[in-house]
Amino acid sequence: MFSSCYRALILAVCLVFWTSPLLCAQVKFAVxxxxxxxxxxxxxxxxxxxxxxxxxxxxxxxQGDDVEFTVINHLPFATAVHFHGIExxxxxxxxxxPGVSQKPVASGATFTSKWTATQYGTYWYHGHxxxxxxxxxxxxxxxxxxPYEPSPFSLITNDSKSLRAMRMAEATxxxxxxxxxxxxxxxxxxxxxxxTGYDLFCVDSMLVNGKxxxxxxxxxxxxxxxxxxxxxxxxxxxxxDRGCTPPTKADLTQGNFTTQGSNxxxxxxxxxxxxxxxxxxxxxxxxxxxASINFISAMSLxxxxxxxxxxxxxVYAVDxxxxxxxxxxxxxMYNGERYSAxxxxxxxxxxxxxxxxxxxADQIISGYATLSYKYGAKNHTSVPxxxxxxxxxxxxxxxxxxxxxxxxxxxxPAPTADATYILNLGRKYANQxxxxxGNATYALDQDYNSPLLFNPESPRALNSNYTIRTxxxxxxxxxxxxxxxxxxPAQPAHPVHKHSNKAYIIGSANGIFNYTSVAExxxxxxxxxxxxxxxxxxxxxxxxxxxxxxxxxxxRYQSANPGAWFLHCHIQTHLDGGMAMTILDGVDxxxxxxxxxxxxxxxx
Length: 604
Ligand SMILES: *[C@@H]1O[C@H](CO)[C@@H](O)[C@H](O)[C@H]1NC(C)=O
Ligand SMILES: *[C@@H]1O[C@H](CO)[C@@H](O)[C@H](O)[C@H]1NC(C)=O
Ligand SMILES: *[C@@H]1O[C@H](CO)[C@@H](O)[C@H](O)[C@H]1NC(C)=O
Ligand SMILES: *[C@@H]1O[C@H](CO)[C@@H](O)[C@H](O)[C@H]1NC(C)=O
Ligand SMILES: *[C@@H]1O[C@H](CO)[C@@H](O)[C@H](O)[C@H]1NC(C)=O
Ligand SMILES: *[C@@H]1O[C@H](CO)[C@@H](O)[C@H](O)[C@H]1NC(C)=O
Ligand SMILES: *[C@@H]1O[C@H](CO)[C@@H](O)[C@H](O)[C@H]1NC(C)=O
Ligand SMILES: *[C@@H]1O[C@H](CO)[C@@H](O)[C@H](O)[C@H]1NC(C)=O
Ligand SMILES: *[C@@H]1O[C@H](CO)[C@@H](O)[C@H](O)[C@H]1NC(C)=O
Ligand SMILES: *[C@@H]1O[C@H](CO)[C@@H](O)[C@H](O)[C@H]1NC(C)=O
Ligand SMILES: *[C@@H]1O[C@H](CO)[C@@H](O)[C@H](O)[C@H]1NC(C)=O
Ligand SMILES: *[C@@H]1O[C@H](CO)[C@@H](O)[C@H](O)[C@H]1NC(C)=O
Ligand SMILES: [Cu+2]
Fold this sequence. Notes:
This protein is mostly beta strands. Helices cover 12% and strands 32% of the residues. It has four domains: 2-161, Immunoglobulin-like (Sandwich); 186-269, no CATH class; 281-404, Sandwich (Immunoglobulin-like), CATH 2.60.40; 419-595, Cupredoxins -  blue copper proteins (Immunoglobulin-like, Sandwich), CATH 2.60.40.420. The strands form six sheets. A six-stranded mixed β-sheet has the order 10-9-12-17-14-15, covered by helices on one side. Strands 21-20-23-28-25-26 form a six-stranded mixed β-sheet. A five-stranded mixed β-sheet has the order 11-19-18-13-16, with no helix packed on it.
């Protein structure tokens, strides 16, 4: 009932504002999944193809469209497809998380999600069963804004020709789906973790729109690119010839649990054989004036910094939502994040390299694509802003300032929260097992056959080690506290992603959040620790990487969309290892799950 009311409202809006060809489309989109040999980076392995393609085909929508997304599972195992960042207003059964919002889609079965594209912006769909992102199950979702959405381009220029060009660029963007790629399947990767007791993170290549190559560097180059603090910690040893920090540097990359290093597959961290894969060419036409490059991180394990040689970028949207545009040369990205950038096509027509470099201390590796001006010289050599290790090449390179990603139009959360949850992130039971609250690891398949959305009173749904239960129409604070004590000598950044509606990142600091609420903390913390006026509005909240001491980040959101929403680290191996919880938003007002979604109330 709730959803049909909502749809009626959207329909009314469509009728009032939209011209006829655009009117509230019903979009049907089907993905046929198969398990086949493929070679995205030039080396063959088994992987998931979507309609015979990798990455999957792009789903392009207009804001307000109703979508029927059908998964046809021809894989030899169960699956489910999630719509990352799509708020699923009134359709919690269509979120695509097995064990949370639905049962897994069995091999041979078909499942249709139905949802409304209520928000404009750049999103993506991806597998949410096991580690299927690592096997290639993902594709772009683009929702073009309604004409009446105020856009922030007049903060860049008031020149009417340029504004028209930006609007046109926004409607026909160049999405760059960035991913990391391993020659091991996700199952093999996970098996290596179980066999070694290591949290593993070495990959073979970085892909742009599914294309790339294995790039190898000499050991000397890799050593030169090793950041001095890492070199110091390596204490005389070096990164491997794949650019990876060895997992044996346990104090740096692992917890204090037992390991079996001899079980590490010989070719997982060492041995680099270059390949000649293909290169994504992004063709632009200087006569259009501007292009919109929409970066989407579909990375499983790596954190890329991206740049386009000789082109500064006006970043105008993050995680699908407009911001006050900010000019930057490089953007540091975490798993699942999206950044849309306007670039002016005013350089000498030619080819310019797009660089995608990992910036964590875990691996020195880059991937490339080409921005190619139509009619430009093909022999043009462009000037980089970052090197193979992701480090700026000159002092004048300006990184995107993430503390200043101000939503446009201005929007802010409620000044106080109704409930506060403090979660202690860290390892649990083994180096590759992670807990989002310090108490429990969340096995992905634990509720496969009785999803929490169908069973809000089950013992698991009532266990605060696994779920957070909120009342509808309340404001919730979640503080992500990153511990630094045994068994965690250090922790990498955790990009924690929340399903359904976005949240405001309202504060972050080093140390222990030793308070019961943000309101209390504000009395004691230095001015500037919290920002309730212009906080970022996002669907992921990355904790700082910690080496020297603990740190925390706090986000605030409104429980306004009743449903079971996953909250999890988007590093695939951390999710596999248990780093998740489910938020049961508005569990007091949950709608009945429509019969067509297979709701069987299995009871507690
Ligand atoms: C464009 O005009 C608006 C309204 O006058 C103004 O607020 C804005 O700053 C102008 N933009 C630029 C880039 O000058
Ligand atoms: C660094 O290496 C040296 C020589 O192998 C060894 O004696 C020392 O204990 C190491 N230091 C650390 C902090 O591991
Ligand atoms: C890649 O292709 C180029 C041009 O055909 C060739 O010169 C180079 O040797 C090839 N490299 C590898 C690793 O196959
Ligand atoms: C690039 O090619 C053009 C024509 O093909 C030539 O005129 C120019 O000198 C070349 N530039 C370089 C740097 O090789
Ligand atoms: C990179 O940028 C930083 C900060 O602006 C600067 O200190 C450093 O010198 C730059 N690196 C190079 C190689 O110029
Ligand atoms: C939650 O986890 C803690 C620590 O593992 C445990 O002591 C407690 O019993 C658990 N609570 C429930 C309700 O299972
Ligand atoms: C973790 O377990 C402890 C001990 O049972 C309990 O006090 C605490 O509330 C639990 N934390 C969560 C998030 O459930
Ligand atoms: C690892 O850390 C735990 C605390 O979480 C501690 O009890 C244990 O002794 C540590 N093990 C080693 C080998 O240091
Ligand atoms: C937290 O606050 C309590 C009470 O003020 C204090 O006793 C305790 O030492 C504090 N803990 C930390 C880690 O700061
Ligand atoms: C905090 O700082 C802001 C800007 O620097 C200032 O406007 C405000 O008055 C300060 N608030 C307090 C409580 O000091
Ligand atoms: C839940 O709260 C939101 C936000 O206040 C409200 O719009 C919505 O109607 C409520 N839903 C239900 C089912 O009460
Ligand atoms: C530990 O992580 C592995 C995946 O690496 C997972 O299969 C296993 O269930 C986890 N164990 C626990 C106790 O969470
Ligand atoms: Cu993590």
